[in-house]
Specification:
By secondary structure, the chain is mainly α. It has helices at residues 3-33, 38-51, 53-78, 86-103, 109-138, 142-162, 196-213, 215-225, 227-232, 237-264, 275-285, 290-314, 319-345. The protein is 77% helix and 0% strand.
């Protein structure tokens, strides 16, 4: 392999690292403007979220929905589709698992947990299939439909938990607790970390095998890379589009299921604090690499996990973390634009 080829292979990794570094530098500037010390602030943020027992458990908890949903965005991208609907799919997955946890009782955990997870996957998959169908059969842009479906899902769950599913005498909109047999076990005692992170990591491995080692993965990648060539190869582009969008929705649905089954144990009006939108940034930062998605999900989760500690220890507003995430996306977009321009001009 020539030096040029090595540099081309390293470019996606380097551009992501540069984007994150620049975002942290800009964040340091914002911290200085807030009258705090960036070194103290960042030390508090990452030390709490990655090196303390409870903090790392909290990071793993936040990493779970980010990883599931990011994998959903990635598999859609592999098929040439832009799934902007992860947030709504999280809500539908949470609804599916909640219904199983609330209304099916008296069965052992080894049946109840997989059943609730499957329901979360199916609810999310259906929510993803719909825009996939509209794109494949009707030619309607999936960015528009997935984005609009987010608001339908959020308002649907809000209505359900305020009316038919609301717990008796609840002071705010939420359901009754799901059955204990539908709750995911805690993997780090005295922390929030639950078995959902293990499921997410196993899913990442399975998805890598699917995309890299199987004929179905070849089909998905071919449609994403060149749908015209895929038709010549007798691959059904329409069926593949619906498949990847359903799979993307199902993975995001698992994120919602794990939020209910492993963390909150009931369905709230605000299931997700924006994980579905963070997942878009994570998938793009990872440049289509599944292991990159795992590491970037950990980075974003650590930012969310350590934000409160940073605020208490260094007096830095939590909004700085949101700014860092935003600048990471901005710098990554600039890198992608420059890379694309270089390819077009032949530089």
């Amino acid at each position: 392999m020539t030096t040029c080829n090595r540099l081309q292979n390293l470019l996606p990794i380097l551009s992501s690292l540069i984007a994150i570094t620049l975002a942290l530098l800009v964040g340091a500037g914002l911290i200085l403007l807030a009258g705090a010390n960036p070194i103290i602030a960042y030390t508090a943020l990452f030390q709490e979220s990655l090196t303390t027992y409870f903090g790392f458990g909290n990071t793993l908890t936040k990493m779970t929905p980010l990883l599931f949903t990011s994998l959903g965005v990635l598999v859609a991208l592999k098929g040439g589709q832009f799934n902007i609907g992860g947030e709504g799919q999280i809500y539908l997955g949470a609804l599916g698992s909640s219904l199983i946890g609330l209304y099916i009782q008296g069965i052992p955990a080894f049946i109840h947990i997989p059943l609730a997870l499957f329901a979360g996957f199916i609810f999310g998959a259906v929510w993803g299939w719909f825009p996939g169908y509209l794109k494949a059969i009707k030619g309607i842009n999936e960015v528009i439909t997935t984005l609009l479906l987010n608001y339908i899902a959020i308002n649907l769950i809000s209505y359900l938990v305020q009316n038919p599913l609301k717990a008796a005498n609840a002071p705010s909109p939420y359901t009754e607790l799901i059955a204990k047999t539908a709750q995911l076990p805690i993997i780090l005692p005295q922390s929030l970390a639950h078995a959902g992170i293990l499921l997410a990591l196993i899913t990442a491995v399975i998805l890598w095998i699917l995309l890299v080692k199987t004929p179905l993965g070849y089909q998905i990648n071919t449609v994403g890379f060149n749908p015209i060539a895929a038709r010549y190869a007798k691959i059904s582009v329409e069926r593949t589009i619906m498949l990847v969008m359903s799979l993307a929705g199902g993975l995001a649905g698992l994120a919602g299921a794990c939020e209910v089954m492993g963390l909150k144990y009931r369905l709230f009006a605000q299931v997700s604090p924006g994980y579905g939108f963070d997942a878009i940034a994570i998938a793009f930062l990872s440049r289509g690499n599944i292991w990159g998605v795992v590491l970037t999900s950990l980075f974003f989760a650590s930012l969310r996990s350590g934000a409160n500690i940073m605020q208490r220890s260094a007096g830095v507003p939590i909004t700085v973390v949101s700014a860092i995430q935003g600048f990471t996306i901005l710098f990554m977009a600039i890198a992608l634009a420059l890379e694309y321009r270089g390819k077009v001009t032949g530089d």
